[in-house]
């Protein structure tokens, strides 16, 4: 029974990283990292430069080997036969300049283990989908950077891997194409792929990721679902909108009893906006009770911090500790 | 699985290489250009017998002038001894003669006198011309001296004997001077060719590694294949392209010879003995001799081992070049690493030249044809002179073993280097990578 539970538990995670350590010339790039990536999720791997993201991604791709620890894909210890089940779009990416687009895509597809026929069918599907079939015989050097990135995207996903790794996928794309790629990534997730998403761009994290892991200096700083993290970091700040003619009294009440972060009063509409930080033992419902006699409560919401704020806060704390 | 990927990489490298414009130019245009150039040079040297030079002679000793004034094909002498040297100088300059030869009054100390003979010219004369002139004076004076001692030059010439040793090994293989010359020529040519190919193709492997690095395509590729596979595929693909180029040249050579046969009607094998005796006068017989001597060489053996060493040398050096390419970011950074690779190649060529010229079986030649870094060049140079099979087998064995060793070392540098950007790499750093 227990083993059955364990088995099921493992199957929920497409990738399991156990105590992975990697050193480069005496510098600890990854310090005993353990991560579990749920199947069908979009998992954000975040962190400042040099945090260890690329090192970890290279280990998952078997480009480098960890000094210690192990990685499991679908419960199996990572091995070369898994290459065809992983798709990787590196941050530093390029193509052979003097090769033709189609020829090059075929080459990279076949290196992933597709047969000639299969590679051609799938590539044509994607080329048609992106409306770029007429690029097939062009040389890469004739393409713009954005065009080349579309080809790179196709090459990354066309073998239908169960795990996709995108390292800064939107860099170099114009907003229209970035949107197109973002939609394709979501579509791939809906079709069952799991996606690891490494980026600095926080707005795309909030838009796309279910889970995140924040790395700094080779260690995990934060990990969890985006919603849970926002709860955790934003739990004690509330935004209150209040209709009252008795502003002074309300404000003095707040200053005495709570930590008032911000306030703004519009005399015409008699609307007072407040931002209040709660202490550990204070409950929002108590405040609500106390406020009612002063006027009409229009809005009382928890203010969720942006991932950007969480990111800066968490990194700042770890840097201070170290 | 991995074999299939290796084949894919080899195919890509091979096709990229042979589709390159410079490959096409090198393969088809350069032999044509070289043969046209050779023909042009041949005709120019044939047609352009240097113009006869006019040299004024002032002989104050009256020892020489009477004899040399007949001149030669290339020099015409004009005797102005009566004018004296100063007047003659002015005359030579004003009349535009090519020079003035002044022979001072005879002196009892012969050496001193001989060394005082002077050639005045406007521009410094060519070495060959000076040598011809010296020879003429020497012969004239020697003949005068001989006559004084009662010997005529004719008699001296008649009593001279020319010896050309007939050379034979104990097993009865007959060698000749011409044959030896051919072996030298072939050996040197082959050694030089292999060296050139190694440098050209090695550099191209290095460039292709740098290109993958700077293009950043490398990370996409090695997410699918092992760096070692990529390295091996690259080396083998380029070696195959090199072989193809070599065979193309061979084929073109055959076509050209056939064309020459057709155009000039030279049929070496059909020539009758009488005709060949007659033609010996015209130098056609020499061509026949050359053809005969070539026939005597162990051609098949030479060819087979040439290919083996060609491939072996290629593989060995390409691995080193690939490692260099991986260690740097741009081609300009490669110099410090390329030099130590070029040195053994150049040494091999020079030692090889010296070996085939002096002693093909001397200790130096043997050592250099066993050491793997020089063997691919020196051994094919020696093979026409007869090298024991055992020696060749040992040499090839060493080459193979060291290829495996070097490719492993190169792979270590390669797999670390290809993912390293923007860092100037030192030898110490490379050593660290090797120990990882």
Describe this structure in words.
The complex is a heterodimer of chains A (322) and B (436). Chain A is an alpha/beta fold and 322 residues long. Chain A has 2 domains: 2-93 and 159-230, 3-Layer(aba) Sandwich (Rossmann fold), CATH 3.40.50.300; 235-302, ACT domain (Alpha-Beta Plaits, 2-Layer Sandwich). In chain A, 38% of the residues lie in helices and 29% in strands. Chain A has 11 helices and 14 strands. In chain A, a hairpin with a 2-residue loop joins strand 4 and strand 5. The longest helix of chain A is centred in the middle third of the chain and has 16 residues, at 175-190. Chain B has a 4-stranded mixed β-sheet. In chain B, a hairpin with a 5-residue loop joins strand 5 (167-168) and strand 6 (174-175). The chains are: A alpha/beta (322), B mainly alpha (436). Chain A binds chain B through residues 25, 58, 61-64, 80-81, 83, 86, 88, 90, 92-99, 107-108, 110-113, 152, 155, and chain B through 1-2, 5, 8-9, 12, 16, 20, 211-212, 215-217, 219-226, 419, 421, 432.
Question: Could you write a compact summary of the structure shown?
Answer:
The complex is a heterodimer of chains A (322) and B (436). Chain A has 322 residues and is α/β, with parallel strands linked by helices. Helix content of chain A is 38%, strand content 29%.
Number of strands of chain B: 6
Oligomer: heterodimer
**Secondary structure tally, helices of chain A:** 11
Low-confidence segments of chain B, given as residue ranges, are 266-284
Q: From the helix content, strand content and strand pairing of chain A, which structural class follows?
A: alpha/beta
- The class by helix and strand makeup of chain B works out as mainly alpha
- The share of residues in helices of chain A is 25-40%
Strand order of the biggest β-sheet of chain A: 6-7-8-3-9-10
Strand order of the largest sheet of chain B: 2-1-3-4
Rg of chain A is 25 Å
Poorly predicted ranges of chain A (pLDDT <50, ≥5 residues)? 1-10
| Total of helices of chain B | 18
């Amino acid at each position: 029974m227990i083993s059955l539970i364990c088995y099921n538990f493992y199957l929920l995670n497409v990738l399991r990283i156990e105590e992975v350590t990697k050193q480069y010339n005496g510098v600890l790039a990854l310090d005993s990292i353990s991560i579990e990536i749920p199947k069908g999720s979009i998992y954000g791997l975040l962190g400042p430069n040099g945090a260890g993201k690329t090192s970890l991604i290279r280990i998952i791709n078997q480009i480098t080997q960890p000094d210690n620890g192990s990685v499991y894909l679908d419960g199996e210890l990572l091995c070369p036969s898994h290459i065809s089940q992983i798709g990787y779009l590196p941050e530093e990416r390029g193509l052979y300049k003097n090769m033709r687009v189609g020829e090059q895509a075929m080459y990279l597809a076949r290196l992933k283990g597709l047969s000639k026929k299969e590679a051609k069918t799938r590539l044509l599907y994607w080329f048609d989908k992106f409306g770029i079939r007429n690029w097939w015989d062009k040389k890469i050097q004739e393409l713009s950077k954005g065009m080349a990135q579309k080809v790179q995207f196709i090459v990354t996903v066309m073998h239908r891997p169960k795990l996709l790794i995108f390292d800064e996928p939107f860099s170099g794309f114009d907003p229209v194409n970035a949107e197109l790629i973002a939609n394709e990534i979501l579509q791939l997730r809906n079709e069952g792929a799991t996606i690891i998403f490494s980026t600095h761009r926080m707005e795309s994290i909030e838009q796309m990721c279910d889970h995140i892991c924040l790395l700094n200096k080779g260690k995990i700083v934060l990990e969890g679902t985006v919603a849970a993290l926002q709860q955790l970091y934003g739990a004690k700040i509330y935004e209150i909108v209040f209709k009252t003619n008795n502003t002074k009294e309300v404000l003095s009440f707040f200053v005495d009893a709570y930590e008032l972060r911000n306030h703004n009063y519009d005399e015409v509409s008699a609307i007072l906006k407040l931002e209040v930080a709660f202490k550990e033992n204070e409950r929002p419902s108590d405040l609500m009770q106390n406020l009612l006699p002063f006027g009409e409560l229009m809005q009382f919401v928890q203010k969720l911090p942006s991932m950007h704020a969480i990111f800066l806060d968490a990194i700042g704390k770890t840097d201070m500790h170290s | 699985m991995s074999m299939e990927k290796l084949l894919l990489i080899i195919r890509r490298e091979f096709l990229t290489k042979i589709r390159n414009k410079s490959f096409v130019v090198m393969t088809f245009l350069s032999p044509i250009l070289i043969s046209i150039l050779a023909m042009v040079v041949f005709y120019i040297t044939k047609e352009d017998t240097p113009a006869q030079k006019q040299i004024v002679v002032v002989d104050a000793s009256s020892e020489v002038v009477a004899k040399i004034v007949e001149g030669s094909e290339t020099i015409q002498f004009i005797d102005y001894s009566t004018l004296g040297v100063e007047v003659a100088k002015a005359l030579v300059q004003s009349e535009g003669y090519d020079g003035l030869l002044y022979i001072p009054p005879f002196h009892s100390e012969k050496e001193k006198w001989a060394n005082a003979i002077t050639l005045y010219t406007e521009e410094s004369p060519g070495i060959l011309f000076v040598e011809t002139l010296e020879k003429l004076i020497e012969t004239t004076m020697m003949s005068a001296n001989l006559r004084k001692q009662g010997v005529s030059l004719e008699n001296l010439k008649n009593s001279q004997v020319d010896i050309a040793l007939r050379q034979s090994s104990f097993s009865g293989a007959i060698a000749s001077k011409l044959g030896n010359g051919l072996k030298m020529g072939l050996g040197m040519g082959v050694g030089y060719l292999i060296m050139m190919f190694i440098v050209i193709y090695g550099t191209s492997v290095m460039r292709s590694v740098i290109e993958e690095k700077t293009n950043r395509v490398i990370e996409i590729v090695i997410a699918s294949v092992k760096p070692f596979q990529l390295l091996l595929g690259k080396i083998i693909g380029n070696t195959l392209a090199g072989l193809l180029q070599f065979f193309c040249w061979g084929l073109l050579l055959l076509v050209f010879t056939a064309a020459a046969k057709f155009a000039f009607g030279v049929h070496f094998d059909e020539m009758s003995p009488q005709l060949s005796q007659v033609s010996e006068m015209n130098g056609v017989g020499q061509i026949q001799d050359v053809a005969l001597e070539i026939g005597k060489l162990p051609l098949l053996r030479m060819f087979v081992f040439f290919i083996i060493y060609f491939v072996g040398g290629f593989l060995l050096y390409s691995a080193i070049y690939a490692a260099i390419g991986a260690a740097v970011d741009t081609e300009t950074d490669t110099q410090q690493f390329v030099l130590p690779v070029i040195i053994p190649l150049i040494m091999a060529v020079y030692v090889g030249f010296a070996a085939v010229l002096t002693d093909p079986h001397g200790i130096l030649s043997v050592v250099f044809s066993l050491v793997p870094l020089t063997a691919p060049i020196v051994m094919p140079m020696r093979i026409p002179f007869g090298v024991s099979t055992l020696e060749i087998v040992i040499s090839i064995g060493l080459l193979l073993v060291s290829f495996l060793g070097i490719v492993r070392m190169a792979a270590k540098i390669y797999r670390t280097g290809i993912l390293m950007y923007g860092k100037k790499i030192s030898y110490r750093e490379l050593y660290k990578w090797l120990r990882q």
